[in-house]
Design brief:
Keywords: ATP-binding, Cell inner membrane, Cell membrane, Membrane, Nucleotide-binding, Translocase, Transport. This protein has 325 residues and is an alpha/beta fold. It has 11 helices and 12 strands. 32% of the residues lie in helices and 24% in strands. The strands form 2 sheets. It has an 8-stranded mixed beta sheet with strand order 6-7-8-3-9-10-12-11, with helices on both faces. It binds iron/sulfur cluster and magnesium ion.
Length: 325
């Protein structure tokens, strides 16, 4: 299977007033053609930073090393001009809150036409026709009314559908969706996720789906990477991850999914997310881990493949721990 995106050994530091925040600590993963890959973890674990780095949209205090290979080319070696051509055309992004991307002062039609003509070189009439088709393809009826609406005249779910329509207007190979349903209520959330699935099936683009919500992962992702404090600690096909989580952090995340009968978390993760200004040595999870051994605070565990397609970075599964633990 060919890969649309390969991230290799990505390190990102931010220079801040308080010191250097080591935000990504050697992240590697890949996304296959037509696949929905989920990146899951708590707030501040580096998911959004990973997404923004693919678009090269990080703030200027970011120092970045590693490789981001998109369709065989390293994006970190591209000029700003080349990146501008890729953004929104080959790689699109949608965010949690569509209102941050839609201009409240302009009608949806004008905004869609702007985006479409920017990349496609169509006339205004052709762009409008394309916009009508896109609106229908994201499951909204009455395109004429939508085109003539201002963003505030639409519901949150409709606005997110419009964002998806705009993101797909140039037929991208990769859609990055950063918490696309977090601001929506549960019913609408399910509809938007189903829409993303249906559109992926129809147009076969790949998706990098960022979420803190394992329910969202279960609903749509083919494979999933679990992030903790700037590292990917586990990667597996979705079903495999839920059935056989290997990393203690993944196990903890799964056990805090509320029990449907009591609505209470089964076993909360103890401790809190570490500061990335001064992250724990070795395995960054070791201060919170019930299984930590001596080696864990000294040596960073590598991500290794334990069974076909199932990777884990933890000394419990061979490597250093076998020798030194
Ligand atoms: Fe726990 Fe050690 Fe595994 Fe880290 S490497 S998750 S501290 S057992
Ligand atoms: Mg985020």
């Amino acid at each position: 299977m060919s890969k649309v995106l390969e991230i290799r050994d990505l390190y990102i530091n931010f220079r801040t007033m308080w010191g250097v925040a080591k935000v990504l600590n050697g992240v590697s993963f890949e996304i296959n053609d037509g696949e929905i890959f989920g990146l899951v973890g708590e707030t501040g674990c580096g998911k959004s930073v990973t997404a923004l780095s693919v678009l090269r949209l990080l703030p200027s205090n970011a120092q970045i090393s590693g490789q981001i290979i998109f369709k065989g080319e390293n994006l970190l070696e591209k000029s700003e001009e080349e990146m501008r051509k890729l953004r929104g055309k080959e790689i699109s992004i949608i965010f949690q809150d569509p209102m941050t991307s839609l201009n409240p002062l302009f009608k949806i039609g004008d905004q869609m036409v702007d985006i479409i003509t920017l990349h496609e070189g169509l006339s205004k009439e052709e762009a409008l026709e394309h916009a009508r088709n896109l609106i229908k393809s994201v499951g909204l009826s009455d395109p004429e009314r939508i085109l003539n609406s201002y963003p505030h005249e639409l519901s949150g779910g409709m606005r997110q559908r419009i964002m998806i329509a705009m993101a797909l207007s140039s037929n991208p190979s990769l859609l990055i969706a950063d918490e696309p349903t977090t601001a929506l209520d549960v019913t609408i959330q399910k509809q938007i996720l189903k829409l993303i699935l249906d559109l992926r099936d129809r147009y076969s683009f790949s998706v990098l789906l960022i979420t803190h919500d394992l329910g969202v992962v279960a609903e749509v992702c083919d494979r999933v990477g679990v992030m903790y404090a700037g590292n990917i600690v586990e990667i597996a096909p979705t079903e495999e991850l839920f059935e056989n989580p290997l990393h203690p952090y993944t196990q903890g995340l799964l056990s805090v999914v509320p029990d449907p009968r009591t609505k209470k978390p089964l076993k909360p993760l103890r401790g809190s997310v570490p500061s990335l200004l001064n992250p724990p040595s070795g395995c960054r999870f070791h201060p919170r881990c019930d299984y930590a051994k001596d080696v864990c605070s000294r040596v960073k565990p590598e991500l290794i493949e334990r069974s076909p397609g199932h990777f884990v970075a933890c000394h419990l599964y061979g490597g250093e721990a076998d020798v030194e633990g």
